User: Fold this.
Amino acid sequence: MEHIDKVAGTFGKRGESGELLRGSVSPAVIRRLPRYHRYLGELLRNNRLRISSSELSKMMKVTASQIRQDLNCFGGFGQQGYGYNVKYLHGKISELLGVSAGLGAIVVGAGNLGRALVSSHMFERRGVTRLALFDVDPALIGSEISGLSVYALEQLESFCEQSRPDIAVLTTPKEAAYEVAVRLAKAGIRGIWNFSNMELHLEEYPEVIIQNIHLGDSLMTLCYEIVSSAESNRQSDEE
Amino acid sequence: MEHIDKVAGTFGKRGESGELLRGSVSPAVIRRLPRYHRYLGELLRNNRLRISSSELSKMMKVTASQIRQDLNCFGGFGQQGYGYNVKYLHGKISELLGVSAGLGAIVVGAGNLGRALVSSHMFERRGVTRLALFDVDPALIGSEISGLSVYALEQLESFCEQSRPDIAVLTTPKEAAYEVAVRLAKAGIRGIWNFSNMELHLEEYPEVIIQNIHLGDSLMTLCYEIVSSAESNRQSDEE
DNA sequence: TAGATTGTTAATCGATTAACAATC
DNA sequence: TAGATTGTTAATCGATTAACAATC
Assistant:
């Protein structure tokens, strides 16, 4: 493994303080990072020591060129003639994705979706600590879901002041979403993972990073493709 | 409204049998359609009769050019000097997205996420009928969730033969996903909305459309951005 | 008609792929 | 060393934006 230590010491686009530079990387590349992370995690579990961009490209159904190009945005993670050390590369991408950053998350809205998300291993598996849930329903407040307390929404600010969560998962009805988002922003939240069906854009708080998720949009593109494929079949039948 | 009837009769890229052509439209455009649909639905609820690409562009934070370019892939839905008729355009996009196609969906896996999805209004709101759930847990089989029966997974094939669902929402554990997907493909499903954490690619059944959803990936890009913004703050502090 | 706004072409920008020199 | 495979530059492709003629 000594060659990897050498690589790590020699290459890599780093800031003065040694961390990896992320600033100027294109969104397209960033969106692909979690997928690399997943595949490398799988290889790691299978005890693979090394992988070449060409073998990985076959597994992931992307070009080897893209893999090399993407990884190189963050530094030279591989080695000519050898490929990539799976453990090392997985670790580097983990680092990029903040797996070791110790982020904490709260879930606002303890309905079906809130429960489903908080009950999954999604957070812990990615190094994110689940801290608490919040809801307005008196029947839920004070109860426990998946080992976490459900607090009253009024307690949001005091909780944030004490526990400084980084991420808020928003699963409230869309009517409440904007108000809650502003309260979260004021309370110093750093990112909002928004599943409420209201698209959020907090112009007043540009420092808060928002991911608007619309599961319905994804269902609709699936429907589009189903209906379109039916149509093209019908058309080729007619020919 | 007569001008719109005229537009509808005069323009539009249509096949011989009159339906809208979808075949050659770029994926980037298709992914944006559901968002147009949402914003137009909102305008419709607010009783707006017409909208120009430039006003819509301000609402949606995209360029007016992109809106016109996108909509024109499917035909001339607007009118020079007037803009777009909200109801007409919303209807056209609904049609494109298959809202009126009468698709039916089953949910395989009645865990937290399966329940959450099936309990939302997501399907009916988009013209998709929820038909049933399937699970292997004897405690769930025979019960009802959100007004739908939970069947044993063994009944999948017989149910599909009878009710011909178009879409299967897959929320099984990842170990089961591939086998279930193949069974669904054999049973004639047309699309799989895959939330299991296994990426599906059914090479043997290219006619089956698969949408692999990885919520964890989206969480990770949020983490990436949070950690990166912290880093760039730190760096500018140092200067 | 005059003003507005689309539809559409051309120009720009960004992302992907190909190719190959560097190098392990 | 020879073979393999990266890192990186150049070429291609696709998507976005700008501009304006067509036209309602």
Q: What stands out?
A: Residues 11, 52-54, 64, 68-69, 71-72, 76, 78-84 of chain A lie near DNA strand D (CB under 10 Å from a C1'). The radius of gyration of chain A is 22 Å. The beta strands of chain A are 50-51, 78-79, 83-85, 104-108, 129-135, 144-145, 148-152, 167-170, 191-194, 209-212. The longest strand of chain A covers residues 129-135.
